[in-house]
Amino acid sequence: MIQYFGISDVGCNRASNEDAFALEPDLGLFAVADGMGGAQAGERASRLAVEAIVKSIRAASPARNLESLLEAVRTANTDIFRQASESPALHGMGTTVVAVLLDPPLAHIASVGDSRLYLFRGGQLQRITSDQTWVNEIGRTLGLTEEQIHSHPFRNVLTMAVGARERIEVRSHELELEPGDLLLLSSDGLHGVVDENLLVEALAADSSLTKKGAALIERARSNGGPDNITAVLVENAN
Ligand code: CA
C-alpha cells in the first residue's frame, strides 16, 4: 500500500515559489520541478512541466514503464521550449524535474537538473539520482572535493534543464521497492540547505509522512531558507 505526502514552501528570502510538485497516486506518479528564468517564467516552467508529465502519463495509462516516463519528460521539454521561444518574456525559462512512476515492485525514475530522489531504506539514506550541475559533472573531474563542491560559486549552475534547449538528456534509474521503503523527492532548497544526516533524522522519526514533511521544511527554514523548499514523500508501507 502506497502512502504519500507533498509540501512546498516559499522559504525565508524569496517572494515567489518557483517549485511545483505532482501527487497522482492513481497513476503511480509523483514529481518535483524547480523552475528558473525569473519569477513568472520560473513558476510557469515548473508548473508546465508537472502538468505535461501528468497529462502524458495519463494518456499512456494503464501502461507504466520507464519509456513512457522518459517520453513524458521529453514532451514537457518540447512544450516549455516552444512557449519560451514564442514569448520574449519567457525566453530562457526552464525547470528541473525529478519524477517517479510506480510499477510495483519497480519504481521508474527520470531526472533532469539537480532535483533529487533519495531512497530511505533500513535507516540508510541513499541518493539515487545524480545532479546535472557544473560542479558534479565538470568540477568533480577537475578534482573538486565534496566540501568544495558544496560551497562552490557554480554549485547551482545546471548543465541540463527541461525547456532550455530543443533536445535534452533525461537521466533514468530503476529501483525494486521493498516493504517499508520511503522515497524522498526534493528540490535543492531542501537538500542543498539541510545536511543528509539531518534529512535522515527527520525521515527516521516515528511520525506520519505529514509530520516528516513539515519537519524537513522546518529544518531548511531554520537554516535560513534561502530558496524555495519542496519535499514529496512516497512510502511503500508494510
Ligand atoms: Ca531551487
Q: Characteristics of this structure?
A:
238 residues, alpha+beta, five-stranded antiparallel sheet, 34% helix, globular, binds calcium ion
**Order of strands, widest sheet:** 1-10-9-6-7
Total of DSSP H or I helical runs spanning 4+ residues: 7
Major β-sheet profile? 5 strands, antiparallel
Rounded radius of gyration (Å): 17 Å
Beta-strand content = 25-35%
Helix content: 25-40%
Helix/strand structural class: alpha+beta
Shape: globular
Task: List the helices and strands in order.
Answer: EEEHHEEEEHHEEHHHE
* Average pLDDT metric: 95
How many distinct beta strands? 10
Task: List the bound ligands.
Answer: calcium ion
**Distance between termini?**
7 Å
- Uncertain ranges: none
